[in-house]
Amino acid sequence: MKTMATRSQNPADAIEIELIRSLYTGFVPSLIMSIGFLICGSLIAWRTGDTVLGLLLIPGALSTALRLGIARRDAARAARPRLGIEEARRLERRFAFAYLSFALILGLFGARLFLLPVVEAHLLMLALLIGYAAGVAAGVGLRPRVAIPSMVMAVVPPMLAALWGGDLLYVATAIMTLAFLAGGIGSLRGRHARALADIGRGLTFASLARQDALTALPNRLALREAYDEDGFEARAARLVAVHCLDLNGFKPVNDRFGHPMGDALLTLVGKRLASSLRDGDVAARLGGDEFAVFQRNIGHPDEARLLAQRIAATIGRPYVIGEQALEISTCVGYVVSDDPADDLERLITLADEALYSAKRSGASVRRYEPAAGARAAA
Predict the structure, then answer these.
(1) How far is the C-alpha of 174 from the C-alpha of 339, rounded, in Å?
(2) Buried b / exposed e across 20-49, counting CB within 10 Å, b at 16+?
(3) What pairing do the DSSP bridges indicate for beta strands 329-337 and 365-369?
(4) 217 Cβ contact partners less than 8 Å away, ≥ 6 residues apart
(5) What is the per-residue pLDDT for 206?
(6) Beta-strand pair 282-287/290-298
(7) Model confidence over 40-63: pLDDT tens digits?
(8) Average pLDDT across the chain, whole number
(9) How far apart are CA 110 and CA 118, in angstroms?
(10) Is the pLDDT assigned to residue 376 strictly greater than 50?
(11) Residue 317 CB neighbours (<10 A)
C-alpha cells in the first residue's frame, strides 16, 4: 500500500479484524471446558454404561484437541499488526469449524444423556452446558456468528430431549434454560453492537494520532511503527532504504501567496509522493516541507536509486492551484541498509546527511555511503 492510510484496511475491515482477534483471547476458559468435558463425560459414560455416550467421547476428544490446537497455533498470526482481512477471515473459518464441531458433539452428548433415566448425571450435564454457554459468551461473544450457533448447538438438543421426557420438572428446567439462552443471545447482540462502536472510535483516534492533519500522510510515529512492524527477520532477508526530502522553492511560494496556498501545495506534494510508491512502502511528513519514505523489501540498491529519481521527477512537475501555476523541485537523500538491527532514527539521520549534501552540490538525488559520506547517485 502506498501510505499507512491505504496500507491499513478500510474502517469496516479494520473493525472486523479486531473482532476476529478477540476469538483468540479465551484459550484458558476453552482449556478448562475441554478438560471438564473429557473428565465429566468419561464419568457419565462409565456411570451410565451407555455405548452411544462412550462413542461420542471419541469425536468429542478429537474436536477438543482440534479446537485447542487451532486456537494456540493461530493466536500469534491473528495478533500480527499487519493482518489482512482475507487472512483474518480464513483464521476465523478455521476457528469456527473447530469451535462448532465441539459444540455439536457436546449437544449430542447432552441430548443422549437426557434421554436416559440417570437423574444424578443430568445435573452434572446441566452444569457443563451452563458453563459452556457462559464461556462462549465471555470468550467469543464479540463474534455472534460463532458464539450464537455454538450456544444453540450445545444447549438446544439436550433441552429438547428434556422436554421429550414429559416430566413436569424437566419441562420447567428446559423452558427456563432455553429462556436464559434467548436472553443471553439478546445481551450478546447488544454487547457486540457496543463493541463495534467502541472499536470504531478507538481505531479512529489511533489513526488520527498517526496521521498528518494537512497531507493525510502518516506522521513520524506511524513511520516508526511501520519500520518496527517490518520486523528483524524481514529486514535480515532483504535490503531496506530510507529517503529524506524537502522542497526547493516552497518558502517563496508561502511568502508570496500566503499560508493557504502553501498548505494546498503541501497537500498536492503529499498525494504525488504517495502515488510514487510501491505497495508496502510508507511515506510520511516529518514537519514543514520535510518528508521521509521507508522503502521495504528491496533486492538491490538500484531500486532505491530509481525510487528517489521517480520521487524527484514526480514532485518537480508543475502545479496548478486555482488559477496559479507553481513550480518547485526537491532534493532526495537516501540510505540503503542491509543491517536488520539498524535503528530508523539513525537511517533518517544518514539520509538527511545525503539530502543536504545533494543541496550543496545541486544534485537532485544523492545516496549516503558509509565509507565516503554522501555521493551522487549514478
Answers:
(1) 65
(2) bbbbbbbeebbeebbebbeebbeebbeebe
(3) parallel
(4) 3, 4, 5, 211, 270, 273, 274, 283, 284, 285, 291
(5) 64
(6) antiparallel
(7) 999 999 999 999 999 999 999 999
(8) 88
(9) 12
(10) no
(11) 10
The candidate with the shortest Cα–Cα distance to 294, out of 356, 203, 358, 224, is 224
Helix (H, G, I), strand (E, B) or coil at 231: coil
Model pLDDT for residues 199-221, shown as the tens digit of each residue: 777 766 666 667 888 888 998 88
> What is the pTM for the complete model shown?
0.63
Single-letter amino acid code for the residue at 339:
D
CA angle, corner 201, sides to 215 and 5, nearest 5?
30
Amino acid sitting at position 115: L
For the record, the C-alpha cell of 378 comes out as 549514478
Residue 232 vs residue 356, higher pLDDT? 356
> Which position has the grid cell 455439536?
104
Residues 27 and 40: their CA atoms lie apart, in Å, by: 20
| Residue 151, C-beta contacts closer than 8 angstroms, at least 6 positions apart | 103, 132, 133, 136, 137, 181, 184, 185
pLDDT at residue 236 greater than cutoff 80: no
Q: Does residue 362 sit in helix, strand or coil?
A: coil
Q: C-alpha grid cell for residue 216?
A: 493525510
334 residue type, one letter: Y
Confidence of residue 1 (pLDDT cuts 50, 70, 90): very low
